[in-house]
Design the sequence.
């Protein structure tokens, strides 16, 4: 039997939403933090979770808090910039099985490749800004650890929503999807939605692009659990949540994750 995780990004996906949903699904937060204990940053951090509701649906709101820099010119963007090689070295130090480390490396690499393409530079010279902040690194690596704690073997994902509007970042105001996110979405099923604001973040897109084996409807599984991770914003139209569905692929001859057909492309957070 294989354990399969289906990602249902009906309102988008971000790294903190994914990790929060995995915690809601049953991955122990203490186990994640223990695996991340060797991480070393210039800024200290702590992780908190809170039960919240979005449109009456209970979910986990996960946040990574870093020490405040009173000298930052813009207090909303006082991130520690990190190189791709720095994050890869951090992954080697994690207290987690090799499969989790491999997943963390894959997510980091596809994200770095997208950033390198956006800025027209070799991957080794990529300086991570928003995606290299402490909170995003914890989200990425913590998500890989959480998947291992849940015993996930394969992953699939539904169509990613493409919204409209703009997002502020270290390089200025960017259209959504952000340039790195747009690169990461290549080859993935998407759906246009009449909503403003960033629904899919670079970290969220990297998790999907690097780890999912198939795209479209969930495969035939015996459903074991459902988890919800909350986004920061309240949306009057749609609950700002990410849903994860965990199941066992048990029926011989049933649709397996690798056999799932990809539909035609028709279609705030970290």
Sequence:
């Amino acid at each position: 039997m294989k354990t399969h995780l289906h990602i249902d990004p009906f309102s988008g996906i971000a790294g903190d939403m994914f990790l929060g949903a995995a915690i809601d699904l049953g991955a122990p937060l203490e186990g994640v933090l223990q695996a991340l204990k060797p991480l070393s940053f210039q800024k200290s951090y702590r992780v908190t979770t809170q039960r919240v509701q979005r449109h009456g649906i209970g979910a986990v709101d996960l946040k990574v808090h870093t020490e405040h820099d009173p000298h930052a010119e813009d207090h909303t963007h006082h991130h520690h910039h990190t190189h791709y090689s720095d994050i890869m070295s951090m992954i080697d130090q994690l207290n987690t099985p090799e499969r989790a480390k491999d997943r963390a490396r894959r997510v980091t690499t596809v994200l770095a490749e997208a950033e390198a393409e956006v800025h027209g530079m070799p991957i080794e010279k990529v300086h991570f800004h928003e995606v290299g902040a402490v909170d995003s690194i914890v989200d990425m690596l913590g998500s890989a650890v959480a998947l291992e704690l849940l015993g996930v073997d394969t992953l699939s994902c539904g169509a990613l929503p493409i919204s409209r509007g703009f997002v502020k970042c270290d390089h200025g105001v960017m259209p959504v999807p952000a340039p790195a996110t747009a690169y990461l979405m290549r080859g993935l099923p998407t759906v246009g939605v009449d909503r403003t604001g960033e629904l899919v973040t670079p970290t969220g897109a990297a998790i999907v692009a690097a780890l999912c084996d198939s795209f479209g409807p969930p495969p035939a599984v015996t459903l074991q659990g459902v988890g919800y991770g909350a986004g920061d914003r309240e949306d009057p139209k749609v609950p700002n949540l990410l849903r994860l569905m965990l199941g066992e692929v048990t029926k011989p001859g049933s649709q397996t994750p690798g056999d799932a057909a990809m539909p035609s492309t028709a279609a705030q957070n970290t």
About this structure: The chain has one domain: 2-259.
